[in-house]
């Protein structure tokens, strides 16, 4: 075999492939120690896991390794070629059936391997001196093959040869996704060993075999007597591994326990056997309790166990969905792999993992390919790609869930039973504690115990003190900057400069203007009082359940009051701004009038800001509504928060307090010119009364400034986080909403142009369209068969014919509505989609659907005109991905219908996931229930026919691939159809 046998492109590819498979099967592989990076190296390793051991030996070496493997493997199709490509050397064993001839061939193989050690300046050869795989927790008889190979290499002229022991320790070698610890021991210098025996190769060879045996036992979890294995497992449970990687905690602990057992059976067998008897007695009682060896029941208090149980339950519930999908997808290849691989397994566990890998790789590969072909024939490509990309993770999740359930369910059941057996629990815990104490005492006497203890501890890098100080200072500075910014003063909307130069006006002109402003200020004060009284009535009706923020009319009434308040507040701020340069007025009486106007407006605006904030304080629902933007009314977002922030402005508060002192100092001057509180000037007296009332009300407000600052800061932080969350959820919802999982019939929907042409003459402005588009992923997340609703408003000519062209809401958008869509079709529908509330054509809205129902509200033409105008007023709003009818600044599809018709139709909202909303199917349900009552003769007069008239149903049948004209009975039947099936 050439020197490049293991380094050819095929060899490199094969090596990378098998290493990748091994790392996938055993994802937690830890290597301690290192194989020399150059020179000739003979690796000698234990052999517990058939052909996976050579692969892991290559992983640990980080160099191409030429290994000896049993000769029959080289005759296997494909696999034998891969072994040759990897540079492996056949080993001929008498046990393979060839007798002396096989032994002779094996000597030739050993010579070939010895020669390979000297190739290329020194290469790596691996051998398993035990000769064959086994399940025992011990190193089997080490044969002389490795020593013969080493001496043959030296005789062939190889210099600097090192024999390196490698221990391969598995957590559970037969189990998928478990841990492996590979410990590389100290190298044995062959030249030095030969020198010790004065160049006698035979003597050195005989000495090398026991040295290899001892070196292997030092790097392997080895018990001198295999019957001690149960003892090893029980002691592992009694002395659980420290926190850290599972491979580091469990396997290294297992090694130390095994070494201790060996030591005490050699050094003090009586003590060891006495301890073994105690452990065995404990094991019997522990097994009778139903708990595993390392059960937390014995070492944790109840509170910690409950937290652990809760955490396990949460993780299992979270992983169950993905794990169920993974189980469903992998059940067939998993079963095939297990059944077929088991037919080839040798007795024990030495070939379980190997055969599962060899069978599983092609089986799973073919299964994934088959699923891909099947899905691509049925679903859209993105569905197949997404599914197949998720399934490996889902399969691993299923494995974790299954294993975790097998572990925790028996433990939970055993713990529940033990909770009712207090005396037994106390006795078990006392016995365990005494046993652990005795084991720890023995461990303390074990040579090298301190070193072993240090080995398992995780080394943490502790930064210098100055680094910690710099990091702490930086974090504190960021916190201070962010906190300072959040707690900053928020200015009022009026400007402090560029106010009118009052002194430049003629006294007569200024007096006339102030007279008008005084009357206007009194009117504003009266308007605020009336508005407050109006609000108190509204508030009582809210508490009585007579009004609701969810009703469009009540929402509009709230908006009207808010807009009125903002308008009156703006008038007050304008007065404050206009008269801030009062001191420049020369005439004393005019100057005092200007000051009174200025201060009265400031006091009242502060007073009514406080009233506004206090009125809604503590009502998160009301605050949320007041902070909501509403383009129809010109209301910006965050009104309540902004006014509350103005109140918390310390500079404004100080200015007001200074003004209050100045006001009292100026009272005699006002009295002297007849403008005092008790004077004959009625307007001035009214303004003084407003100032006094404001002063009394706002004096106590100083205690709440800090509260308002903190509340404003929290609101800003919440808005920032909420905004990011909403944008993320909107992106995900848009992706889901626009994603189609299938596109049969080359993407053509079931509603044909002929059906649309037949339906169009039946439509009238104000009709409600209930629609379904099959195969959209969003259908799975919406209740019922009908997921979408839209409002047919007619063409631009129809809108003008209804006399709506002059309506402000319609006129602002009529030019846009009179246009066409990208395909040149006229707009006729208003609906909310992921893009927002938009104008669409019937060719798009109905013609691209698979089923459509048309319901006509039994309302007058005037009522429908009002509804259509309202619908136009909502056009342009964004889509509400929260599906919450509380807010009106963003709308979902059915909300366009709901808010357009308002109290003209009684369509109750339903609560879904804690939010009031209206699925499209609820509109159909209301119609169906009313039509059933009408058919039964219930109801009188106008109510006899219900709120809706059935106009048409285009009923799509995805399985048949057709859409037919259907009747009202079919629409009622559709209420029982599922949202998503294999056929739609």
From TrEMBL:
Give the source species: Actomonas aquatica
Q: Which GO terms describe its molecular function?
A: acyltransferase activity
Which residues does the UniProt record annotate as the domain Phospholipid/glycerol acyltransferase? 41-171
Q: Which InterPro entries match?
A: GPAT/DAPAT (IPR052744), Papain-like_cys_pep_sf (IPR038765), Peptidase_C92 (IPR024453), Plipid/glycerol_acylTrfase (IPR002123)
Mark the transmembrane ranges.
Answer: 313-332, 353-376, 382-401, 465-487
Is Transmembrane tagged as a keyword?
Answer: yes
Spell out the protein name for this chain. Answer: 1-acyl-sn-glycerol-3-phosphate acyltransferase
Keywords of the record, alphabetical order, are: Acyltransferase, Membrane, Transferase, Transmembrane, Transmembrane helix
Name the Pfam families for this protein.
Acyltransferase, Peptidase_C92
